[in-house]
Design brief:
Radius of gyration: 26 Å
Shape: elongated
Structural class: alpha+beta
Strand content: 5-15%
Number of strands: 8
Distance between the termini: 50 Å
Helix content: 25-40%
Length: about 190
């Protein structure tokens, strides 16, 4: 009985198609980036001050966003004023530059950097939308083989503070799996996934 060595090169025929499959990777990366953006945007849009006032809430099933602190608790009657205000005032304030004679109105919502006021339906960390919009706008490098999600330069310091308290700069395990599945499908011969 002799020694037999067999080399099967039949599988190399599929390697001949590898360059055209690899060429599909950038378009699939772009489709994945659009899906990531949509999932992240939907999850972020549900993070309203009213929802977060009850305690920590899960963001995309991977991290917890802490509640926004109340504005203050009044010493006079012990009433806690939520971030959006709405609690009847108990002391006269100012109206049109003149001291009010009678107590009217409610406590205003917390001020935002843009000058707007927080409402119960305000989305957390989306005052002007610049940080979120910048972060969720993908930038492609290396002929589309690299996708970057970055916070704009002018929002970096604010984003660092917010991300430490309410983490939003991350890829959920489902995002990583979706990207992996898409690329494997394309490289194995599937069309745009």
């Amino acid at each position: 009985m002799g020694l037999t060595t067999t080399i099967n090169l039949g599988g190399l025929r599929t390697l001949a198609k590898l360059p055209e499959r690899v060429a599909l990777v950038p378009s699939n990366m772009a489709m994945w980036a659009d899906e990531y953006r949509a999932k992240h945007m939907i999850a972020w849009e549900s993070m309203k001050y009213l929802n977060l006032n009850t305690g920590a809430v899960s963001f995309r099933g991977e991290t917890m966003w802490m509640a926004s602190p109340d504005q203050y608790t009044r010493k006079t009657d012990g009433v806690t004023v939520p971030p959006w205000g709405g609690v009847p005032r108990i002391a006269p304030g100012w109206s049109g530059g003149k001291r009010m004679k009678k107590v009217t109105g409610v406590v205003q919502g917390r001020g935002r950097p843009s000058g707007a006021r927080v409402t119960p339906n305000s989305t957390m960390m989306v005052d002007t939308g610049r940080m979120r919009g910048g972060f969720l706008t993908p930038r492609f490098e290396n002929n589309g083989f690299r996708v970057l999600f970055e916070v704009p330069d002018d929002a970096q310091s604010y984003a660092r503070v917010q991300n430490a308290w309410r983490r939003f700069v991350f890829m959920a395990s489902v995002d990583i799996q979706a990207l992996r599945d898409r690329l494997v499908y394309v490289l194995k011969g599937g069309a745009n996934g």
